[in-house]
UniProtKB/TrEMBL annotation:
The keyword Nucleus does not apply. It comes from the Bacteria. Residues 333-385 form the HAMP domain. PROSITE patterns: HAMP. This is Sensor histidine kinase. The chain crosses the membrane at residues 12-32, 314-336.
């Protein structure tokens, strides 16, 4: 039996399937539900945090813008712009106003003022202010006099600080990242531009606000302007080209769509997933800085707790599977072990060892089964000793009795032929016939059930030699046995009774010359045919039908015995049929077929199994 069909294999497979599928389903459902819950929780928490941060940044920018309004709150500031640089009092008052602005905003790094009226530029930084006469502001793009359609106040995105064209106070002063609030100074209510003010702000407040929004080891935070340029990003103070390009690639279009939907309200908010990360964004809503806070949370960080929980469940599942496998193996061995032992006993019994000592001491159903099987085998052994062995002995005795039935008829005919020769005083011929008769008697008295066709053919030749002596020229004999058939085993004394039927039923009443032919041939790989043909009288049709019926292979001895009363004639043929049935190969019974020939005579064929 294949191991794939054993109870142990099926039990192990069933237990593994029954355990694995629910565990895997539970782990998968837990992981999915945990991911969903963590995602929703993270979204709500981060939206609140980013919204609060956007409010703080908005307030920060508004405070800087309100602080820059000090130039209008000082009634003498606008007049002093026209008096520079010759009026030292005006210079001092302008300086005082700028210091007021600087004091109002703690993150001011430096202030730059340019007066279009007096062509005077002023830079206030540590340790001393710097002034010089210029015909135009430092940068035409920021402080030029072109166009009046834009806003009077705006915030420049993060950039590296510079000295607005002034000489650096110290060669060691390195630039830093700043944002700049630009304001155009007008002669209110006249639209005439008197000057421009630039306030460079350190990133400290922005860093302080944004640092509370993310975990630098796992997440990233960005503050971007309306063109998606990075104002601030976590971990570094100012963006690298690769970082800015990556953010523009993965989030640029989504942020732009959100801003367009928000319109003038400038309060776009939302989230999206891309590049194995979740992005949550919130627009500030400031009138001065079109900024958007963007927080990037990688999926491995977002679902870290779900992954950890899943791994814990997986470890528990693996431990449970190992326990199930061990328990299943133990149970299967306890169940299939006695079965395998019982199968080994059965194989030994099948091999012929009927007295196997069956020992299974378990008290469960298998032990009961083994004890019942042992009792059954004891009963079978007793039946075999009492019935089967007795039946074998009866068959052996029966076979010998069948063989003995041939001898009286044969001896009578043979002795009659030899007696005739003795009366004719043909001693040499009589001696030859007596020698043939002695060989035949020795052959018939051999204690041997089966012989080869070669031996049967020789016995038939001796028998026909005696018959030719009796009939003389009135009998023609033809014998031709194929060489490849002579080694086939068959019951002893098979051919003589079949030949003898011709002399019993046809030779004495046959007018003219008699003819008998005996041949053998192999019809396929495992069967041979022995054919006997004579020119005797045909068998009547009703008798032929009756003979064909009882010539059919019989499966039981009782069925053959039931036909004995109907076969008072043809004793020799009946004996041949009985002996062929008793000695037939299992599942390969010999067959005898008989037919009348159209030209006259009878044909009889014996089909024997030649073996593998």
């Amino acid at each position: 039996m294949s191991k794939y069909y054993s109870i142990r294999t099926k039990l192990i497979a069933f237990m593994l399937i029954a355990t694995t599928i629910p565990l895997l389903a539970s782990i998968s459902m837990t992981f999915i539900q945990t991911k969903t819950a963590l995602r929703e929780q993270a979204l709500e928490e981060n939206k609140r945090l980013i919204y609060q941060a956007s409010t703080n940044l908005n307030n920060y920018v508004d405070n800087v813008a309100r602080a820059s309004l000090a130039i209008y709150n000082d009634p003498t500031f606008l007049r002093n712009l026209a008096k520079l640089p010759g009026d030292y009092r005006a210079v001092a008052e302008v300086y005082t106003t700028l210091q007021t602005i600087r004091a109002a905003v703690p993150d001011v790094f430096q202030l730059y003022l340019h007066s279009f009226v007096s062509n005077q530029s002023t830079l206030i930084t540590n340790p001393f202010p710097k002034r010089e006469e210029r015909k135009q502001a430092y940068s035409d793009s920021l402080h030029g006099k072109t166009g009046d359609g834009g806003s009077d106040i705006w915030v420049e995105s993060a950039h590296m600080s510079h000295t607005y064209g002034f000489k650096a106070a110290s060669p060691d002063d390195s630039p830093r990242t700043v944002i700049t609030l630009h304001r155009i100074i007008r002669d209110i209510p006249s639209p005439e531009r008197l000057g421009v003010l630039a306030i460079d702000l350190n990133m400290n407040s922005i860093v302080a606000i944004c640092s509370r929004l993310y975990d630098p080891a796992k997440e990233q935070i960005y503050v971007v302007d309306g063109q998606n340029r990075i104002v601030y990003q976590g971990r570094t103070e100012i963006q690298s080209a690769n970082e800015a390009g990556h953010l523009q690639q993965v989030a640029g279009s989504t942020l732009e769509d959100g801003r367009n939907l928000a319109g003038s309200a400038r309060n776009a908010a939302g989230h999206f997933e891309q590049d194995q990360s979740m992005y949550i964004y919130q627009q500030l809503g400031s009138n001065y800085a079109d900024w958007t806070i963007v927080k990037q949370i990688p999926n491995e960080t977002l679902y870290a707790r779900a992954t950890a929980l899943t791994w814990n469940n997986a470890m528990i599942a693996i431990a449970a599977l190992i326990l199930v496998i061990v328990a299943t193996l133990f149970i299967s061995i306890r169940i299939t072990g006695p079965l395998k032992q019982l199968m080994r006993y059965m194989n030994q019994i099948q091999a012929g060892r009927l007295h196997v000592d069956i020992r299974l001491s378990s008290r469960d159903e298998f032990g009961v089964l083994a004890r019942h099987f042992r009792d059954m085998m004891d009963t079978v052994n007793n039946l075999i000793l009492r019935e089967y062995q007795l039946e074998l002995a009866n068959k052996t005795n029966q076979l010998k009795a069948l063989q003995a039935q041939i001898n009286p008829h044969f001896l009578y005919n043979t002795l009659q032929s030899i007696g005739t020769l003795a009366l004719q005083q043909q001693g040499k011929r009589a001696y030859t016939l007596l020698s043939s008769l002695s060989k035949m008697l020795r052959y018939s008295m051999r204690d041997q059930t089966c012989v080869t066709l070669r031996e049967e053919a020789e016995h038939a030749r001796l028998y026909l030699e005696l018959q030719q002596e009796r009939f003389g020229e009135r009998l023609e004999v033809h014998m031709d046995f194929a060489e490849d058939t002579l080694s086939v085993q068959m019951p002893r004394m098979t051919l003589q009774p079949l030949i003898e039927n011709y002399f019993k039923h046809g030779a004495d009443v046959q007018p003219g010359k008699g003819y008998i032919s005996i041949t053998s041939r192999q019809v396929d790989k495992h069967w041979i045919v022995i054919e006997l043909i004579n020119n005797g009288p045909a068998i009547p049709e009703d008798k032929l039908i009756e003979i064909r019926e009882w010539l059919q292979p019989q499966e039981t001895e009782s069925s053959m015995s039931s036909q004995d009363s109907a076969m008072s004639e043809s004793i020799g043929l009946r004996n041949v049929v009985r002996r062929l049935a008793l000695n037939a190969h299992p599942g390969m019974p010999a067959r005898i077929e008989i037919d009348n020939l159209k030209a006259g005579g009878v044909k009889l064929q014996v089909k024997l199994y030649a073996g593998e």
